[in-house]
Write a structure and sequence with these properties.
The complex is a heterotrimer of chains A (about 110), B (about 525) and C (about 625). In chain A, helix 1 runs antiparallel to helix 2. Chain A is an all-alpha fold. In chain A, about 70% of the residues lie in helices and about 0% in strands. Chain A has a domain of about 60 residues. Chain B is mainly α and about 525 residues long. Chain B has a domain of about 160 residues. In chain B, about 75% of the residues lie in helices and about 5% in strands. In chain B, strands 1-2 form a two-stranded antiparallel ribbon. In chain B, helix 13 packs antiparallel against helix 14. Chain B is globular and about 70 Å long. In chain C, about 75% of the residues lie in helices and about 5% in strands. In chain C, helix 16 packs antiparallel against helix 18 and helix 17 runs antiparallel to helix 18. The chains are: A mainly alpha (about 110), B mainly alpha (about 525), C mainly alpha (about 625).
Chain lengths: ~110, ~525, ~625
């Protein structure tokens, strides 16, 4: 009979596994999806997976560095989202498509 | 900021400002760059007085840190040898701008901007005393020339530009490697510091290291000179380059190689240089004869002049590696002479091209009848180029050959054959281009000089005569600088020098009796 | 200071004025500047020579340092005169002035100022005078070399004066290049002299010449002298470098007279005589000089007997007479050589100018076969040419007799065989010169032009030169030169004189027999000796041999082997080979960089996985 009882605290490994799963989903989305928006979201997903790892280790090591890095990443991600979405909008306006393989040259 | 810094900074600033000028106003661009280059030229004349007072040492030195780690310094200075090369560059730049006045019609702004950048780069090479700085300027001078050939050249310009770039790049990578090794061993990029440290025994290189580093520097410079058999980029580059590009390439860029040999190679690796002088002189002499023979059969004017440069620069290398005061003075003087007379030849060939739109010798003939002054100037330049006495090249060639003869009479015998051959190919060119019946196409297009063209020709003509008749205006400064270089090479080579030979031994030496 | 520099400066000024502004001048103004400058130069020569006399040693003026390098090498722009120089100076400026005057008449029909022929001609001629005077006045070998190359240049320009004609420009190039081969030897000699003596100044070199160790004398001095002789052979058209001079007749006739007869071609003799202190220490070299001179004299004389172009006949005669001068130098009679330089300048300039007058009268006809019977039509020309022909044939007490006699006596002193060959050559000389005279002036006229006598500007110089040809021998040059060149060998044997005079008279008689008395004889001889005749008529096929053995192989070899083979094939082949290998490798690697982000990402992932796997397997960093 396996032991389904929960431990007193969530073990570190669970966080890491969750993070790995999220990261893998992100990679898969990045590689396989065709829409720019989805690819973009996959990148965000990967960033957040990494954030989770940072926070986990920060908690575990009782050091604040991980938190600081997470904030950095979040700021960058926010900026990226702003710029990225703007670019995506412009691309859509110019090309009327968001298929990533269609947008393969800088010049029209 | 000294005058010398200004000579680099002004063209560099001119380059940036030119790029900012409006594209649709080529007249402004021409006038502006001409103005800048003339200012630089006039300023450069200010170097002459102070340097000539004591040409053996560096003047206008600036030595400030540029990059802290690795310790790269902005260390520049000018002595008797670099003095004339700088003035040659600053003189030829306004001439090149005038030469291109009507010839360049596309991307005018970029063209003139690159000429100024080129001037900044070559001046930098001639004054840099920090090896890394030297390398940086070396590369800076390479880039504008690449574009001058690649953008404004003739039909096969891309091929020629890439070939030029690859040859020079291959050499300079080797040089960079050697510079870095030198830094790791000697702890500095500073040339005077390294030399001092070698003289005092602080920096000791074993013979193997010396040899390979010498070779790396030597190949980099030999490609640029160009020394046989590394010369094959030159005819292509010249054949395809626009007129101004050819002038700068022949007159100034080729001198970078020879300058590097004298300034860097000889003092840094005196013993290896002396030990390897024999085969290098061999290559130089092969180059002299080979260049002349191949020039003789070229159907294209520019390629002919390009091969003649291979021949002439062979004399320079011969003089350098003769390790005699006379030969070395002749070599440096010959660099200047070649800059003047071959520059003028390329310019005149360019003028012929502007009129006839062809470089094939067979498309010409009888130009003398329709454009007499152009022909006279071409013939005078030709005569200068084949070393007619009282014109500039003779002095250089005589000194080089006399120097070579003092080391080994056989060298002089073979090198002097080049003098015979030069008469053959140049006079044959003159005959086929200027003499004979005038074909209709030539008569139709050929006009004589206009005022702008006179303005480009007369300074060069004056210099040809001046440098041939009164070489004492120029040579003493060169001598002082060279005797210092020779002293440096002698210090470490004293041990390996044989005793002064007696008359009988001397005789055997002269006639190569063993 | 006696301002020697003014001597060459006048013609230089004339050259510059005519060269730069001549296009706008009238012909009269051009002539004024050209002739005036040379006359001034002549007068200045006379004045300075009188002022500096007795000229027994070298008087030198230093103007500025020309080339210097370090302490070892210092070559000044120095001019000097002594008795040897004085003879040359007077000949050059004197004959030069006469020929300039003559040329104003001869070239009068050249296209006018705007077409450029006239002023161009005179500016070249002045430039020539400048360089020739530098050559003669130079006080060191390098400055001598300046004049040496400079006169070669002017010779090139003037031979190719009619530059529309291919043959003229070819001849110009040939002259320059063959001269360059000679100059190659000369320049090597200069290097050797500097190495040996540490100076190029005549005075310093000659002062040291005697005091050298034996083996140095035997080796270095001999080599130096032989190399000097190579230079002299080029400039003075000696075997084997004589081939340019006959072709040089493409130039206008005054040029042939001035440059290719009277002055420039004698520069080699002057140079050898100037270097006498060196040659005296190199007996082997002197022997070589004598043999080359003799060989040239004979060879050119035989060719001269068969030529039909009047200027070619005189050209070969010049080559032959120059051979005599070298013979003189070679046997140690330098002063006799210079003596002959002077008298030859008189009568050979006259022969050429007279030929020019004939050509002028016949509107450009040069072929002897189309002349004849001109005696009565152009009497002045005939009489003057008669004087010259007498002189060159060695008729007693003419100038040619005096100098040739000196040479032959000296040759006999050295070796009787040389004397006899010289005598036979003298006979041949008389034969072909008189052959030309008979063909031109006797018999009946065979051409179609309307001969007319030339104007006074042409006949006046002819008259002066005729006088000099007959009486010029009475300037006793060998006596005048004794302080400089030493005494010529003594011993005037009247028998020798009689033999040489007889030889000349026999030559004249044979010419009369062949071309006046029995005009059918030459053809009979030519047919009988067909092979020999063809060989000589075609100048021993020397030009053809040079072309086949040297010129063709060099040009073709350069084109096929060096350029197309080595340059394009080997060096560029290697470079392009390296290029295409890199390109091939790049082509394979290129597929990795298709530009698809997805591929990059997948590869990045793959890489990351591989790295992680590697870390996992090796246990990671501890």
């Amino acid at each position: 009979m396996p032991d389904f009882s929960l431990p007193a605290a969530v073990p570190i490994s669970w966080y890491l596994i969750l993070s790995a799963v999220l990261f893998t989903l992100g990679i898969a989305g990045f590689l396989l999806r065709r829409s720019i928006i989805t690819v973009f979201m996959s990148i965000e997903l990967m960033l957040n997976a990494v954030n989770l790892t940072f926070v986990t280790f920060s908690y575990k090591l009782k050091a604040v560095d991980g938190h600081i890095f997470t904030f950095f990443v979040m700021v960058v991600a926010a900026a990226e989202a702003a710029v990225g979405l703007a670019i995506i909008l412009t691309v859509f306006r110019n090309r009327s498509t968001l298929e990533i393989d269609e947008v393969n040259s800088l010049k029209l | 900021m000294t005058l010398l810094d200004a000579l680099i900074a002004i063209p560099a600033a001119g380059f940036l400002i030119t790029l900012l000028l409006p594209r649709d106003n080529p007249g402004l661009v021409r006038n502006f760059t001409l103005f800048v280059s003339l200012v630089v030229f006039l300023l450069s004349l200010g170097l002459i007085g102070p340097v000539q007072e004591n040409p053996g040492v560096m003047h206008f030195e600036t030595n400030v840190p540029w990059i802290d780690y690795p310790a790269i310094r902005y260390h520049v200075g000018v002595d008797g040898m670099s003095l004339w090369l700088i003035i040659l560059s600053t003189l030829l730049t306004p001439i090149c701008i005038l030469v291109s006045w009507n010839y360049i019609q596309k991307r005018v702004k970029e063209f003139y901007a690159f000429l100024l950048l080129l001037l900044a780069g070559v001046t930098g090479v001639f004054v840099a005393l920090d090896l890394f700085l030297f390398y940086v300027f070396w590369e800076v001078s390479l880039v504008p020339m690449y574009f001058l050939i690649g953008v404004w050249g003739h039909d096969r310009r891309i091929y020629a530009a890439v070939k030029f770039f690859l040859f020079t790049m291959a050499g300079s990578v080797l040089m960079l490697g050697a510079i870095i090794v030198l830094y790791l061993k000697g702890g500095s990029f500073d040339l005077p510091f390294l030399l001092d440290s070698m003289a005092k025994g602080g920096l000791v290189l074993n013979p193997g290291q010396q040899f390979w580093m010498f070779l790396a520097f030597f190949v980099a410079f030999a490609v640029k000179v160009p020394l046989f058999p590394l010369h094959t980029w030159l005819p292509d580059a010249h054949g395809e380059a626009p007129t101004a590009g050819s002038i700068m390439l022949a007159s100034v860029l080729l001198k970078l190689g020879a300058y590097g040999l004298v300034r860097v190679c000889l003092p840094l690796f005196p013993r290896v240089a002396r030990e390897n002088a024999d085969w290098i002189i061999g290559l130089a002499i092969i180059g002299i004869i080979y260049g002349a023979l191949v020039a003789m059969v070229q159907p294209n004017m520019k390629r002919l002049v390009a091969y003649s440069s291979v021949s002439h620069l062979g004399f320079v290398v011969l003089g350098i590696f003769s390790f005699t005061q006379i030969g070395l003075d002749g070599a440096v003087y010959q660099m200047l002479n070649h800059g003047i007379s071959t520059g003028a030849l390329f310019m005149l060939v360019g003028y012929l091209y502007e009129r006839r739109h062809s470089l094939e010798i067979a498309d010409f003939g009888g130009v003398s009848s329709v454009a007499p002054w152009l022909s006279v100037m071409f013939v005078v330049t030709t005569l200068a180029s084949i070393g007619l006495p009282l014109l500039n090249n003779f002095v250089g060639e005589y000194l080089v050959l006399q120097g070579a003869a003092q080391v080994n009479f056989t060298y002089a015998v073979f090198a002097a054959i080049g003098v015979i051959l030069s008469a053959c190919y140049m006079l044959w060119l003159v005959q086929r281009t200027f003499y004979g019946e005038t074909p209709h196409e030539v008569a139709h297009h050929m006009k004589d000089f206009n005022a702008r063209e006179w303005a480009t020709m007369l300074p060069l003509l004056a210099l040809m005569v001046w440098m041939g008749v009164y070489s004492q205006s120029f040579i003493p400064a060169i001598t002082a600088s060279n005797s210092r270089t020779l002293d440096m090479t002698r210090q470490s080579a004293v041990a390996s020098q044989p005793q002064a030979p007696g008359p009988l031994a001397r005789l055997k030496e002269i006639f190569h009796v063993r | 200071m006696h301002q020697l520099w003014l001597i060459p400066a006048f013609p230089l000024l004339g050259f510059l004025i005519n060269g730069i502004f001549g296009k706008k001048f009238s012909k009269r103004a051009v002539s004024l500047f050209a002739v005036g400058s040379v006359l001034l130069s002549f007068l200045w020569v006379v004045k300075t020579l009188m002022a500096i006399s007795p000229l027994e040693t070298l008087y030198t003026e230093h103007y500025f340092t020309w080339i210097a390098s370090g302490a070892a090498l210092n070559i000044g722009f120095d001019l000097s005169v002594d008795r040897l120089t004085s003879v040359m100076l007077l000949v050059v400026t004197g004959i030069g002035s006469l020929i300039h005057i003559y040329a104003t008449g001869y070239m009068a029909h050249e296209p006018g100022p705007n077409h450029g022929g006239y002023y161009r001609f005179f500016s070249y001629l002045n430039l020539f005078m400048f360089f020739m005077l530098i050559l003669v006045l130079a006080a060191n070998y390098l400055l001598l070399f300046v004049g040496w190359e400079g006169v070669g240049l002017c010779s090139y320009l003037l031979i190719g004066f009619y530059f529309v004609k291919k043959s003229a420009t070819n001849a110009g190039i040939k002259a320059f290049v063959v001269n360059r081969i000679g100059d190659f030897g000369f320049s090597l000699a200069i290097f050797l002299i500097f190495i040996q003596f540490g100076s190029l100044d005549f005075q310093k070199v000659f002062a040291q010449a005697g005091g050298l160790a034996d083996e140095v004398q035997a080796g270095v001095i001999t080599a130096t002298c032989l190399l000097l002789m190579v230079g002299a052979a080029g400039k003075s058209a000696q075997v084997p470098l004589y081939v340019w001079l006959p072709d040089a007749m493409e130039g206008p006739t005054p040029v042939s007279a001035l440059i290719h007869a009277a002055t420039m071609v004698t520069a080699g003799v002057y140079m050898v005589a100037r270097s006498a202190p060196l040659f005296n220490h190199a007996p082997i070299a002197m022997e070589v000089v004598a043999v080359i001179g003799l060989l040239t004299a004979v060879m050119a004389a035989t060719i001269g007997m068969t030529q039909n172009d009047i200027k070619k006949v005189y050209a070969y005669s010049t080559v032959s007479q120059l051979g005599y001068m070298f013979l003189a130098c070679g046997v140690g009679a330098y002063s006799a050589g210079i003596y002959h330089v002077m008298t030859h300048a008189f009568f050979k300039a006259l022969l050429f100018l007279g030929a020019g007058s004939v050509i002028h009268a016949l509107q450009g006809e040069q072929d002897l076969r189309n002349m004849g019977g001109l005696r009565s039509k152009i009497p002045v020309t005939f009489l003057t040419l008669l004087c010259a022909s007498l002189a060159i044939a060695g008729f007693p007490y003419t100038s040619g007799f005096m100098s040739k006699d000196e040479i032959l006596v000296a040759a006999h002193h050295h070796s009787p065989a040389m004397f006899w060959i010289g005598v036979i050559t003298a006979s041949m000389t008389a034969f072909y010169v008189w052959r030309a005279l008979f063909l031109c002036f006797f018999g009946r006229y065979r051409g179609s032009a309307h001969p007319h006598e030339s104007p006074l500007v042409i006949t006046l110089p002819l008259g002066v030169l005729a006088l000099l040809s007959i009486l010029g021998g009475f300037f006793r040059v060998p006596v005048w030169l004794e302080p400089v060149l030493g005494k010529a060998p003594e011993g005037h044997d009247p028998a020798l004189v009689i033999i040489s005079v007889a030889a000349g008279l026999i030559g004249i008689f044979l010419a009369w027999l062949f071309y006046v008395a029995k005009p059918g004889l030459p053809d009979t001889f030519a047919r009988a000796l067909k092979g020999l005749y063809t060989l000589v008529y075609n100048k021993y096929f020397v030009d053809e041999a040079y072309d086949a053995v040297i010129i063709r192989p060099v040009v073709d070899g350069s084109r096929t082997v060096l350029w197309k083979g080595f340059d394009v094939g080997v060096v560029d082949g290697i470079v392009n080979g390296v290029g295409s290998v890199s390109r091939g490798v790049g082509g394979i690697l290129r597929t990795l960089q298709g530009g698809s982000i997805r591929n990059y990402a997948a590869l990045t992932l793959l890489g990351a996985v591989l790295v992680l796997a590697a870390v996992a397997f090796t246990g990671g960093a501890q």
